[in-house]
Write a structure and sequence with these properties.
alpha+beta; 2 domains
Length: 323
């Protein structure tokens, strides 16, 4: 239950969020080109919440329903799981059951500052995963948050909102997770208190430009893909400057584009980087689509190839670099 000493602060913060109302998704005919591909309005609004230091964004477009913890996770679900995987790490995924069957408009992850773990497992990072529910949970999500606050290691007030703090000992190191549900339908799960504070501040009216807007990587984003991602890389020499990923479920296709300077990466080198797992070894096709832009595409005909492709996506976006 919410502690009395933070009730007033929380009420003030919620007052600042009253103006926020999640926009319903646009129909395909209404989707607009925004200089960043065709991105639905509710996703674009969410991107505006991500702090400017963000390096990687991953978006799973909906609507889709959250499956049961066991028995209903297929290849399509894996693409949707990536920007919600923190829920699996918190208390071994016990809170999935509270969201089972809920319809999601989109899920979005913003992340940065990836750091090597002590052993196998995901890299540490600062970031936040945002799950946009179509309908608010019962009682505005109070029951959901009450349970999290009761079972968390503690709670903290972040930008006036009471946030559940979980501490987990995972393979590779110790993690802290910060979870809050806003207005019953916007679930925020973060690995960094400052990053979460930045997201909430932007939600409360301090919106800024989408990270990296104006960079040429955004021209290659297809916001209509079932899932898409962009990573901003700032390296010298022959390393690529940016990476854009698109996944198409019905077309059974995964596409990756390296965006760099002319001659910055060869088709052969880019293709080899996406053939590391045996199921993909003969399925990577590459081409240079313009100077400095190399595309690698995969035909993903079964769950094995989809899983392999998405594992590499997760790796290349910064998370599972020890795999």
């Amino acid at each position: 239950m919410m502690r009395c000493d933070v009730c007033g602060v929380v009420a003030m913060a919620l007052g600042g969020l009253i103006a926020f109302e999640l926009t319903q998704p646009l129909s395909k005919g209404e989707e607009r080109k925004d200089g960043m591909g065709k991105i639905p309005k509710h996703v674009k609004e969410t991107l505006e919440w991500l702090p400017v230091e963000t390096e990687t964004v991953y978006v799973a477009n909906g609507p889709f329903k959250l499956p049961r913890v066991k028995g209903e996770r297929d290849a399509a679900w894996e693409a949707r799981w990536i920007p919600m995987f923190l829920l699996d790490l918190i208390r071994k995924g016990r809170y999935w059951s509270l969201l089972e069957g809920r319809e999601v408009l989109a899920s979005v992850e913003g992340s940065c500052r990836f750091r090597q773990p002590r052993g196998l497992g995901p890299y540490f990072f600062d970031g936040c995963q945002v799950v946009l529910l179509k309908e608010a949970l019962e009682k505005g999500g109070a029951t959901f948050m009450d349970r999290l606050l009761d079972e968390a290691n503690g709670s903290e007030v972040v930008k006036g909102l009471e946030v559940a703090r979980f501490e987990e000992q995972l393979e590779g190191g110790d993690w802290k997770f910060y979870v809050v549900l806003i207005k019953g339908k916007v679930l925020l799960m973060a690995t960094s208190r400052p990053y979460l504070a930045g997201v909430i501040s932007r939600m409360q009216g301090g919106k800024g430009p989408v990270f990296g807007r104006g960079r040429k990587e955004w021209k290659h984003v297809d916001g209509t893909a079932d899932a898409w991602a962009i990573r901003r890389l700032e390296r010298e020499g022959d390393e690529p400057k940016g990476l854009v990923v698109s996944y198409y479920e019905k077309a059974a296709t995964g596409r990756v584009r390296y965006v760099t300077r002319e001659g910055g990466i060869s088709v052969a080198n880019a293709r080899e980087a996406w053939r590391l797992l045996p199921p993909l070894s003969k399925k990577a096709r590459g081409r240079e689509i313009s100077p400095g832009v190399v595309e690698i595409s995969h035909r993903l005909k079964d769950q094995t190839t989809v899983s392999s492709f998405l594992l590499l996506v997760h790796w290349r976006l910064g998370h599972w670099a020890n795999y």
